[in-house]
Amino acid sequence: MTFTPENFPLVSFIIPTLNVEPILDNCLASIVRQDYPRANIEIIMADAHSTDRTREIGKKFGAVILDDNGKNMEEGKRLALQHATGEYIVFVDSDNEITHPDYLRLAIQALAANPQALGVESYYLPSPKMSSFCAYLTARLHISDPICWLMSANPRPVARAGEVERWRLPDGTLSYPLGANGFVYRRADLQSVQADEKFQDTHIAMFLMKNGQREWLRIHGRGVHHYYVQTLWKFVQKRRRATVHFLRVQEEMPVNWMKEQPPVPLWLAAVYCVTFAGPLWHTLRGIIRDGDARWLWHVPACLASVLGNTWGVFTYQRRGRDKALIADLHVNQTLK
Q: Reduced to 3 DSSP states, what percent helix, strand and coil does the chain have, rounded to the nearest 5?
């Protein structure tokens, strides 16, 4: 489907923020660079009371800024979703940068032409602004944690028409964290699973798949640069925070994609990470297959994942009721 200036649908970008001054300008600039009518783009930031220039930067790009008083990022996304007016919704984190100016237009056109698809998933592509470690985490693993990577089913390509690829999971599993970092949904589909009431990042896509929409789209070679972290130590800290966040969200709604028939159970994924043999095998396999030495980060990242996640469990046990805990564990992200 081809849109004309008269019929481009309104698109809402939803971004949770907290003290992200070093990276937010990069994210928002990539949104306004899209070859999509600016008048048809709405940017909504759910800000958890940043104390740096986050809000000032958001205002510079014309964002609507909401006060997020919740205790986790999911509440912020639900808040922003309740205020969104777009026909299509794009979930973007402040550490994302949209890679190509035609990504949004192609994604919206693809969804309009493929009513069976639940949304459009980004490719996570490397960038000169990334360290080699960051590029390994996001561009090579696609999922920014070795444990989650091991527990994820491999999606299968269904077909490709031009730049639009169709994907789905193998039958019998929903174990794949689908729906974050530049993911595009129809607002009507989100409403069908009451996302504004029970939004949980990667679980909305799982709800839609359970409702029968087993297929999603990718735009060939396009998506986001995901500046998750630049160093190994910050990765440990980020996994600590992510674990605390995960456990807190589980209290509200015990839905977990890792329980949806993963290829490897959690305990075995943790054992894999600390035994060296498995990580070394995948390191060699990745280097041979991709010709990319950044796979050498796989062994230390596996150990760091176990350390960060274990640290997160202990932190949650000690301070889980502290409403300010997620903010206190905030990890500063930067561009290279």
A: 45, 20, 35
Q: Confirm if 65 and 28 have CB atoms less than 8 A apart.
A: no
Phi, psi of 270 (to 5 degrees): -65, -40
- Closest Cα partner for 282 from 266, 263, 298? 298
165 and 123 assigned to the same domain:
yes
| 100-132: b (≥16 Cβ within 10 Å) or e | bebbbbbbbbbbeebeebbbbbbbbbbbebbbe
- Pair (180, 319) in one structural domain: no
Q: Is 262 in the same domain as 118?
A: no
Q: What DSSP line would sit under 120-156, residue for residue?
A: EEEEE---TTS-HHHHIIIIITSSSSHHHHHTSPPPE
Residues 6+ apart with CB under 8 A from 63: 15, 28, 43, 44, 45
Token pair belonging to 99: 């890679």
Q: 238 is in which domain, residue-wise?
A: 233-328
H helix runs in 212-297, sequence order: 232-252, 266-275, 277-290
User: Which of 209, 228, 247 delimits the end of a domain?
Assistant: 228
CA neighbor of 224 nearest in space, from 125, 107, 145 = 125
The model's pLDDT over 205-262, given as tens digits with 9 standing for 90+, comes to: 999 999 999 999 999 999 999 999 999 999 999 999 999 988 988 887 788 899 999 9
